[in-house]
Specification:
By secondary structure, the protein is of the alpha+beta class. The longest helix is centred in the C-terminal third of the chain and has 20 residues, at about 210-230. It is elongated, with a radius of gyration of 20 Å. It is built from 8 helices and 11 strands. The strands form 3 sheets. It has a 5-stranded antiparallel beta sheet with strand order 1-7-8-5-6, with helices on one face. The chain has helices at about 5-20, 40-45, 140-145, 155-165, 170-175, 185-195, 210-230, 250; strands at about 25-30, 50-55, 60-65, 70-75, 80-85, 85-90, 105-110, 115-120, 130-135, 270-275, 275-280. Strand 5 and strand 6 form a beta hairpin. It binds zinc ion (ZN). Zinc ion binds near residues 262 and 264. Zinc ion binds next to loops.
Length: about 290
C-alpha cells in the first residue's frame, strides 16, 4: 500500500507529463477497476483535457476540462505508467513499471490524442479509476470520510489537537492511522513520527499533553516532507517519477530497525503489536504517559 509521500511523488510525476493532453480513447477489462457508465465516458472523459492532478490522502484526482474528474485509488497493487516521449511509472513495484505494456496486470488504458498512453495496472484488482462530476467529488463515499490531509495548510496545530481528541480513549497510533481523523498516515510514518516525538504508540490520546501532540504534528509533517524530497518512501521499493526507487527507509530511524540500537539512547528497538499493526518502538525514549 503506498503511503502519502509515494502518492505525492506519483502526483508530481504525472502532473508534469499529462496536463493539457486530450483524451481520445479508454479501454478497460474490469468493471471494478473502471466502474464507469459508457455514455458518461463518451461524454465527459473522451475529448476532455487534463487540467491538473490533485492528491487527497492516498488517493489521486485527475481533473478534466469537462468538469469531471477521475478518482484513482491504487490500493495494494495499483500502479500508473505513462508512455509517451518519456516513460514514467510509479506505484506497486513490479516489472510492469518497465516492461512493454499492456500486460496481464493492465486494467485500464487511456489513450491521448497524441498517441501517448496512461496505463493503470493492478494485479489484485483492489484499486479503481472512477469517473465522477468534479462538483460531486466531495460527496464521494470515500472522499467524504477522509479527515484533513496530513500536509494540508488548513491542518493547524489547533485543529490537529482537536481532531485527535475525538479519540481520547484510543491509542495514539490507532488514532493517527485512522484516515477519518487524518488522511495520509500509514504504518511507516506513524512509527517514525511517534519515535521522533518520544510518544509510545500505545499511549491513550487522552493522556497526552497538548505540547506532546503539537510536537507529534511537527514531526509528522517534517518526516513526510523529507520523504517526498527523497522521492517518496519505500516500504519495499516504491519507484519514483523518474523510475528511481525511493530511499526513505535507508533513513528510517525506527521502522524495520528491531534488534538494532536506538539512535538516541542505544536501547534496543523492539517490534510490538499496536492497533493490529507491527510497531517499532524504543521503550526508553517512548514511554506510556
Ligand atoms: Zn531510545
Amino acid at each position: 500500500m503506498p503511503e502519502l509521500p509515494e502518492v505525492e511523488t506519483i502526483r508530481r510525476g504525472l502532473e508534469e507529463l499529462i496536463v493539457g493532453r486530450e483524451l481520445q480513447a479508454a479501454e478497460d477489462d474490469n468493471p471494478h477497476t473502471f466502474p464507469n457508465d459508457k455514455q458518461q465516458v463518451q461524454n465527459f472523459l473522451l475529448g476532455s483535457r487534463i487540467i491538473n492532478v490533485e492528491r487527497r490522502g492516498k488517493a489521486l484526482l485527475i481533473n478534466l476540462s469537462s468538469n469531471y474528474s477521475l478518482l484513482i485509488h491504487l490500493r495494494m497493487t495499483g500502479q500508473l505508467v505513462y508512455i509517451g516521449l518519456q516513460r514514467f511509472g510509479a506505484g506497486h513495484p513490479t516489472k510492469s513499471l518497465i516492461n512493454a505494456l499492456p500486460d496481464k496486470s493492465t486494467r485500464v488504458i487511456l489513450t491521448f490524442k497524441d498517441s501517448s498512453k496512461l496505463f493503470f495496472n493492478d494485479q489484485r484488482k483492489f484499486g479503481y479509476m472512477k469517473l465522477l462530476a468534479t462538483n460531486l467529488v466531495e460527496e464521494d463515499s470515500f472522499i467524504k470520510k477522509l479527515g484533513p490531509d496530513a500536509l494540508s495548510k488548513e491542518l493547524t496545530a489547533g485543529i490537529f489537537i482537536k481532531r485527535l481528541k475525538k479519540r481520547k480513549g484510543s491509542s495514539i497510533k490507532a488514532t493517527i492511522l485512522d484516515q477519518t481523523i487524518l488522511a495520509g498516515i500509514g504504518n511507516i510514518y506513524a512509527d517514525e513520527g511517534l519515535w521522533a516525538s518520544g510518544i509510545h504508540p500505545s499511549t491513550p490520546v487522552g493522556h497526552l499533553t497538548d505540547d506532546k501532540v503539537v510536537k507529534l504534528h511537527v514531526e509528522i509533517v517534517r518526516i513526510l516532507k523529507l520523504s517526498i524530497k527523497l522521492g517518496g518512501s519505500t516500504d519495499r521499493n516504491y519507484i519514483d517519477a523518474g523510475g528511481r526507487e525511493g530511499s526513505y527507509l535507508e533513513f528510517a530511524k525506527v521502522f524495520r530497525r528491531e534488534g538494532q540500537q536506538c539512535l538516541v539512547c542505544d536501547n534496543e528497538i523492539v517490534k510490538i503489536r499496536v492497533a493490529g499493526r507491527g510497531t517499532h518502538v524504543c521503550t526508553r525514549c517512548q514511554t506510556i504517559e
